[in-house]
Each structure stands twice: as C-alpha cells, then as structure tokens.
Specification:
The protein is of the alpha+beta class and 271 residues long. It has two domains: 60 residues, Arc Repressor Mutant, subunit A (Orthogonal Bundle), CATH 1.10.10.10; 179 residues, GAF domain (Beta-Lactamase, 2-Layer Sandwich). The chain has nine helices and nine strands. The strands form two sheets. Strands 6-5-4-9-8-7 form a six-stranded antiparallel β-sheet. Helix 2 packs across helix 3. It is elongated, with a radius of gyration of 20 Å.
Length: 271
C-alpha cells in the first residue's frame, strides 16, 4: 500500500504540527495499524525524526502503540470529537427529543459515543426503576457488552471490529457477557437484521437494554441511544416495540443533525 498524505500549502505554519496532523490523517485513513517506518516514509522524514514525533504523540494520547510497534489513533482524539459533538448540538438534540414526552418516558435513556473498545456516556436520564445500576455522564463501559456499543459496532465492517479487539478482550461483567469477538460478530449480524440492538443482561444481570445508533453520512454510528428496563419486563413483544421506537428516535436525530434521512436498516443496530 502506498501512503500519500494530503499536504496542505506551507503558509508559514509550524512544520512539526503539520507532520503530526499528517501522521494522524495517515493512521486514521489506514485500514490496519501502521509501522513507524511506513509513516516516516510517507511523510518524507528521517527515521529518528519519525520516532521522536510518534513517541510524543503516544505520550499525549493522540496515538497508541501496540506490542508489535504498530500505531493506531489514540483515545485523546475522542475528547476533541466529543467536544465537536457537543458543539454541533448532538447532546442538545438528544435532550430535546426525549423532553417532548412519549411512551419511553418511564424508562432510563442513555446516550453514548464509541471510544475504541469502550462507550462513554455523554448524557443519561435515569428513571425510578430498580435497575441495580445508575448511569452517569462520563461513565465508561465495554462496548462489546452494552446496547449502544453493539449498535455503533454494527455500523462497522466485521474486519474493523476484529481489528478493534485484536489485542485484548474485556473482562466479563456478568455470566451473560459475550465471550469473544466471533460471538460478538453473530450478535452484530442480528443487530443489522433487526435494526436495533439488545444487551440481554450483559452489563447487569437484572437489566435489559435496547437501542439504536445515530448514523452519519458515511454509514457509521456517531452515537448510540439506549432504553434500559428491568429484565423481567423485557418480553419479546416489549423488546420489539421498544426496538422500533428507539430506532425511529435515532433516525429522527440523524435527520435533524443533517445526516441521511433514509437510513439503511442493514447499518442500524440494536443497543
């Protein structure tokens, strides 16, 4: 694969900053993690300069380095992404939608973004139901077990999901937590077929979560919405009914934020 960074005009800006941005663009655009030699060669800089730049970026959380010395995007970028989402009124739109009232008012509603193999909760509205778990803003949980995580992961290609979990698998939270990436892919296939995702007691034994992903123009999930309820209440009919409602809510949010108005149901998932 030949890597060619998109080089903007020089215009007097700091070369090191330009190189850092170009390195992020390269790693972000690559389907697989990149070696330092590949990045340095693409940027046209000496090996020692590339290692110094990449080490600094790892230290700052802009990149992460695997045990094999390969680089992928770091979690610090998600802090900027989350700030961008806030500035584009994504959280505000979520709150406005669920402040309008409706059949889902009695349930806990959560709103997350995907950060590597975890979801981070941007907003939540806890109900009085005895779920055994209180969601809070800033909380992080393994994406493989959560409804919102499954929803957003289902918008990715299976190969990307396998790469995401190639280095480690999260410790199970309950006896129902999915055990490996192969089983997760089966669940993601179900998500794509049904148009919503289900966490059947994978983060809390007594709780079921159902939801869908907010999709951008590229077909990727930029956020996830979930409804949580007591597992004893989660009959097949209730799950299907809430699944349709939460999928509709995600579609409306996508459209209101300027994303595609007609979402491909093969790319929308169950939370």
């Amino acid at each position: 694969m030949e890597l060619k960074p998109d080089l903007p005009p020089n215009g007097g800006s700091t070369p090191a900053l330009r190189r850092a941005v170009q390195a992020l663009d390269l790693v972000g655009a690559s389907a697989t993690p990149l070696a330092a030699a590949d990045i340095g060669r693409a940027l046209g800089i000496p090996k020692s300069t590339a290692h110094g730049l990449l080490s600094t970026m790892v230290e700052l959380g802009l990149l992460t380095r695997s045990d094999q010395g390969l680089f992928r995007l770091g979690s610090h970028l998600m802090q900027w992404a989350n700030g961008f989402l806030n500035q584009t009124n994504l959280v505000e739109e979520f709150r406005r939608h669920f402040a309008l009232g409706g059949d889902l008012d009695s349930h806990t509603v959560t709103f997350t973004v995907l950060e590597h193999t975890e979801v981070m909760y941007l907003d939540c509205r806890n109900s009085g139901e005895p779920l055994g778990l209180t969601f809070r803003i800033g909380m992080r949980l393994p994406a493989a077990f959560t409804a919102t995580g499954k929803a957003m992961l289902a918008t990715l290609a299976d190969e990307d999901v396998m790469e995401l979990f190639s280095n480690e698998w999260p410790d199970p939270m309950t006896g129902h937590s999915v055990n490996n990436v192969a089983d997760l892919l089966i669940e993601l296939g179900e998500c794509r077929r049904h148009g919503y995702s289900v966490d059947n007691g994978q983060i809390r034994e007594s709780m079921t979560c159902i939801g869908a992903a907010v999709i951008d123009h590229s077909g990727r999930g930029v956020a996830g919405i979930a409804i949580s309820l007591i597992q004893s209440e989660a009959s097949d009919d209730i799950i299907e009914s809430i699944g349709k409602q939460i999928s509709s809510a995600a579609s409306e949010l996508s459209a209101r934020l300027g994303f595609r108005k007609r979402l491909d149901t093969q790319r929308v998932a169950i939370l």
